[in-house]
Model the fold of this input.
Amino acid sequence: MSQIDDSATAYAKLLPDYEAFSIKMRSLIEDLVRSRSIHFQIIESRAKTLASFEEKVARPGKSYTNAIDEISDLCGCRVITYYLEDVKLVSDILKSEFHVLEEELSHQPPALQADRFGYLSAHYVVKLNEERANLTEWASYKSFRAEIQIRTVIQHAWSAVSHALQYKAETEVPSALRRRLYRIAGLFELADEEFGSIRDQRISLRKSASKAIAAGEKNISLSNASITEFLNSWTRRPFVIRSAQEAGFSVDQSAGE
Done:
């Protein structure tokens, strides 16, 4: 039996454990991110399939002494956030809650050359920290690793589109198309920054409206922000909501948040 076959046989035995580990990791990361009140688009995870494992081990130019110990993405997790700032916040959570073995930030804008655009993402390879690994429900996975990617919705969209074009590396892109792809990638990156800026401006408008209402100002421009802040501070709001509910209406109380 070849070394590849030996590795595949060993991984096949471990695969159910990695599938269970990936489910537990997704649930844990969701709980950690929600506990910091970070809104996210999706958190997903998967265990590497046996076919994918065999393909990776058999790739030309690859040589493993112990493939199971050396391949870091047998469990893979992905966190898709709405804003660039949240990528950093989620990264901080991973650093505080796991033992980080590898941190790859070369695909983040600060690490790129001025004329480079394209695939953006933060990558981490982690293990359970000692405190969590000693818990009964996690003890079976203390030696397991997970590769975690963090990116925004915009970054994820670019990754999906570029993957659909079947260009896995910049060198594969014909030179005639490379400049066009750079231009598009630059627009994606600009959109990411603008969404964050719009969110910050929205928060600033709500704070200004809240201060004006608290100060009793009468000449306040009507806007979604000023109306929302007025309703949030209106002393009669609980009575109106209760009356509406008693009358049979369904009230979304988060609408003014």
About this structure: Residues 83 and 195 are 7 Å apart (CA to CA). The chain has a mean pLDDT of 84.
